[in-house]
């Protein structure tokens, strides 16, 4: 195929790579990259070299560039992004798209090389309990630098747009995260954990303090529910917080660890009596989108982000940040099977157009095309 000199060339960096899918950003790179490629965009993704045993130059039409990193807990992601940004600045790409506000300072490189850039800044990382002291200060500063050095800041929720405007006096474009709704799953997948349809409540997410699994577990244990509470997720390191959770003695608690089989995870969502969402910081949350797309009755921590995603109570119930409130909402759920069934039936209606991956991709494409034009390359 002959090269089209007018073809839009976009590189994506800041995630783990493609087709590696582990977290939210990796999923976005996959969903967005594949759709952009089908629309005729020359898509290049920077991959964290050590995560890929095999390193093909191209997968599904997406060009892959494997860059190294300083392999340490605090420097892996930043060093990988720095090297990737440097490489991108010396390449012929029209637009550099960066994910993760931690990479905010690296926008100074693209400024020096006059490369058009966009950054998806994610949530309020500096407020997360895991980033104490220097980590918290770094994320706040890095997010501020992102608003100074990048041509287009992208947030995934209206609430995040408001916060960035208030804190950093920078307007941003809101492009939400996409969802892949599903209506069917194999209930027999639950046999692995001796579960039956609607015999359990569900939590899905990393077991870190800001997702509030401890609060939900504590409240659930105080409730009189005969159902189980299934906790899907873990952390890939030894952690006292997680050890304490797993040490709680109650036969209703079931810790599955990571569930990497997508069909098993789908079955767990589909057949839950209700899904608990305790995530506190961030914009559009992928686990919440899955819960909506898989038809869950959702019980969510009362935050501005969760209010936005559930349309102020149209698609879920809220609980305040206390074990007592969790226990009370479990009691309410136990006594309201018809209301929960209605939430399940209408959950997918919450996936409005802004959460559609094709719509999301078109919005990103417009941003990239505009950046190329402003740079005089169109």
Automatic annotation (TrEMBL):
Keyword Transferase belongs to the record: yes
UniProt-recorded Gene Ontology molecular function terms: glycosyltransferase activity
Keywords tagged on the record: Transferase
Keyword Transferase found: yes
Domain Glycosyl transferase family: 195-348
Residue ranges occupied by any DUF1972 domain in the UniProt entry: 9-179
InterPro entries according to UniProt: DUF1972, Glyco_trans_1, Glycosyltransferase_grp1
Protein name (record): Glycosyltransferase involved in cell wall bisynthesis
Annotated source species: Aquiflexum balticum DSM 16537
Taxonomic lineage from the root: Bacteria, Pseudomonadati, Bacteroidota, Cytophagia, Cytophagales
